[in-house]
Amino acid sequence: MATLSPSTLVSSSFSPSSSLFSPRSYSPAASLLSPPKISTSTLRFNEVNPSSLVNTRRRRRRISTRKGMFCSASSLPSALLFDCDGVLVDTEKDGHRISFNDTFTERELGVSWDVDLYGELLKIGGGKERMTAYFNKTCWPEKSPKTDEERREFIASLHKRKTELFMALIEKKLLPLRPGVARLIDEALKKGVKVAVCSTSNEKAVSAIVSFLLGPDRAEKITIFAGDVVPRKKPDPAIYLLAASTLSVDPSSCVVVEDSAIGLAAAKAAGMKCIVTKSGYTAEEDFLSADAVFDCIGDPPEQRFDLTFCANLLEKQYVS
After folding, report:
1. Which of 5, 121, 156, 158 has an alpha carbon 20 to 30 Å from 193's alpha carbon atom?
2. Is 94 a known active-site residue?
3. Percent of the chain with pLDDT over 70
4. Catalytic site residue from 83, 228, 236, 306
């Protein structure tokens, strides 16, 4: 498996705003990181009706609009970038949440995250950041240390144990791949499109999902960018910009598959096209800026989109 192992892992920091679970806003320091302005004539598919995609392949030649048509996509994406949790596998409610709670129980912290609370916590990217923000807002457990440095070590130890418990669930294959994931990855790899997984989750947990659920043959062809590989997590675009740089591709030639508003914000800030496949926790989030929104990727006979659809999203030329 191709994984990215930075020489130094930089811990991310989280500064809660007036609302504990509001994602940190991102203001790019340079115009290069700003999402591109999209013309009203740019090809868009928001909240696509799956029934309209039965003949997806017919879109390869042209896609009509009231004013004209879009030319066929001149090339495939340079890279297809997947988020992990909620995109490859719907892991949050019955995977990560359970593993966090089991860790809290083992350490006798007197903490338990129910389904609704965890849904709010997911607005914070990163497990360590999630725990830190929660304890800062509520109060730190009685057994936790008092200094900032000791608390960072404490959070890191909790997260390490949580990851071990989560990996055990994955290794037992108790959480299945979402429909269409393997199919779309196979299409991309067959056509020579680079594939990567870009996640705020721990690298070991992401690697376990890719290895055990996608299999070793696919895993060795997929690059993983995860955890503390970047100092700032989603909605910051850092992880997607790092992926583009490492894979030697132009961000504008990449298509991202995400499931959350913070992931969408990261992809768009990186200047990439983004397709949202809603997950259990994110179905009601705002995806107005997405290039397409589906309930899943889908397998035949209920396939929602394919690699050709991803290529069409990149086509910018408009014929009046």
Report:
1. 5
2. no
3. 75
4. 83
